[in-house]
Amino acid sequence: MNGKGIVFLGFRYLQRNRVKTLLLVAAFTLVWLLPSGIGLIVSRVEVQLRARAMETPLLLGQAGSPLELVFNGLYFTRPDLATLPSRELDTIAESGLASVIPLYARFSAGGHRIVGTSLDYFDFRKLTIREGRPLLWLGECVVGADVAEKNGVRPGDAIVSTPETLFDLAGVYPLKMTVVGVLESSGSPDDGAIFVDLKTAWIIEGLGHGHDEAESLGDDQRIKTVEKESSIRLNASVVEYNEINPDNADQFHFHGDLSDYPVTGAILIPADAKNQALLKGRYTAQGGLQLVSPAEEMDELFATVFSVQRFVLWLLFAIGLATILIGALVFLLSYRLRRDEFLHLRHIGADPVTLKALVAFEAAFVVLSSLVVSSLSLLVIQLAAPGVIRHFLN
Amino acid sequence: MIVVENVRFSYPSESFELRLDQLRVEAGETVALVGPSGCGKTTLMNLISGILVPAAGEIQVNGVKVGELSVAARQRFRLETIGLVPQNFELLDYLTIRENILVPFRISSSLRLSPETRDRCEFLAERSGISRHLDKFPGQLSQGERQRAALCRGLVTSPRLILADEPTGNLDPENQDRIVALLLEEAKHIGSSVVMITHDPVLLPRFGRVIDALQWRTAGGNA
Predict the structure, then answer these.
(1) Total domain count, chain B
(2) Across the interface, do A344 and B107 touch by the CB < 8 Å criterion?
(3) For residue B99, what is the nearest residue in chain A, using CA coordinates?
(4) Which of A51, A92, A101, B12 has the smallest C-beta neighbourhood within 10 Å, fewest atoms?
(5) Residue A204 DSSP SS3
(6) Rounded CA gap, B44 and B132, in Å?
(7) Domain containing B98: what range?
(8) pLDDT in tens, A253-279
(9) For an interface test with A, which of B46, B47, B75, B110 has the most A Cβ atoms less than 10 Å from its Cβ?
């Protein structure tokens, strides 16, 4: 047997029948790749989701889907989540049962979620400023590493929030925010978020605004008032500022009680297990609000995912087995089709081992190529998974 | 040298039986085998080359009893000793003509593919008039060109014995003459024996001996 000659003849045959070869390699690649790829993606998703969930002890939110609350609180998705009044957060903070970090993840700018929160959030998530400084004044924002990279922004640049409803004249107007800091990449959803002070988020919503002093405005911008009314009421023609800067910062104000203002949720960090138990007991009993443990929610989610995955893997196993059998049939038919070729080689002087090696080469090449392609694909999936998962979660 | 003694062979599903009591072909001798279709010429070639094994009798090629060799040894012996030029060319359609001519070197563990063998391939292709087709595939060539490629493959290993089954069957007279000349010149140059099946009486005077195979089918015969 001439090993080099067999490889040469084998390659020439596969090259001449490249369509058949490619189809076989593709089919076998799918057989290996699909189950292992699905397993890899699920495990990656699990690692990513669990890691952030494990770091977050409790999430408080309006009653509803606990999973939606977890996704909004951890990944800033589901912006249409029902809100709760910030009064509830004050109550917990005053009780001393837990530290409270408010979250208002509802608005966005250029596809990135604007997250209204407090400075405690950065300490809690161990987020560090790569460039610039932390939040200090109204109208400022700190952006995640991905936001800075994708939009090419750095401290001193501006980001404009996306209006919620384009044709709603009474809706949320865009607010031009000054970027004061860029976060170090953390490989988490924080990289794709724009962080603002909670009050800035409320200004984006229109709950707070700024305009010229009412006394300095003309009659055309006032609503006719009854003589005895001491306050001045302005009409809609008053131009509101769409940017907060040192010159107009003093003009920004909020109407009504701030404790009524909304948040989408809050991260609660109980001091100890006893406080955590007390909090859980309180909010299990209390209607209207829910207190969830993200880790427990993820356990439930993945219990469902894994049972579905098991079913899918059995299905893929059956399909894979069928594909392998069809592949074997193709090799068998190919052997029959090549009978003349092998007869010719035998007449020239090829020994039986050489002929068997030629048949084995084709099968080995297809199987090994498909293993190589599927391994490379798995590597690509492994490398791309974190970014892709983050993209889908956002 | 070929020695055939008391050979009997029959195909399982056919009534045909080859009976050959004696045949000797000396080293360097050139023999033309003639006879009507079905009289056993190709069968004899297959027996001599070890593709078939006789039911009885003995065949020696260069002193080696072919029938007594194992399958693998017989294949190796054929590859190293015999240049076979089959009637139906037996070219591999996924190899170029050059690769087809050199295929014995790809399947043999003892024959070595060297620059000299490549030169010999070019030389034989040039002599047989197919040098411009060396990089084409068999399907792109005419029957006659394919037949010449098969002849080149049979000669490329410089074998001690050349068995050619109607190598001029698909050729025009000019190419017939050219191919037989090449075959005989190469055989003389290498010192090989040649056994060639032909139906063309014009070619017979060019061979040292002519054997009529008709007698083998019905009864035993000597040659």
Answers:
(1) 1
(2) no
(3) A9
(4) B12
(5) helix
(6) 35
(7) 2-218
(8) 787 788 889 999 999 999 888 988 888
(9) B75
Q: What is the DSSP string of A129-159?
A: EEEE----STTEEEE-HHHHHHHT--TT-EE
Residue B223 domain flag? no
Q: Is residue B210 predicted with pLDDT exceeding 80?
A: yes
As a whole number of Å, the CA-based R_g of chain B is 17
Placement of tokens 């909020």 in the chain = A254
A127 touching chain B per CB within 8 A: no
Return the residue in A348, A353, A355, A358 with the most chain B beta carbons within 10 A, the one to mutate for interface testing: A348
Could you give the CA distance from residue A109 to residue A347 in angstroms, rounded to a whole number? Answer: 76
CATH number of the domain at B45, please. 3.40.50.300
A19 vs B: CB within 8 A: no
Backbone angles phi, psi at A190, to 5 degrees: -65, -25
Residue A3 or A266, more confident: A266
Check whether B219 has a pLDDT greater than 50.
Answer: no
Number of residues in chain A: 394
- Which residue on chain A is closest to B111 by alpha carbon? A2
Pick the more confident residue, B34 or A239: B34
DSSP string, A77-104: --TTPPPEETHHHHHHHHHTSEEEEEEE
Q: Establish if B173 belongs to a structural domain.
A: yes
The reply to whether A342 touches chain B by the CB within 8 Å rule is no
Task: Tell if the pTM clears 0.80, that is, is over it.
Answer: no
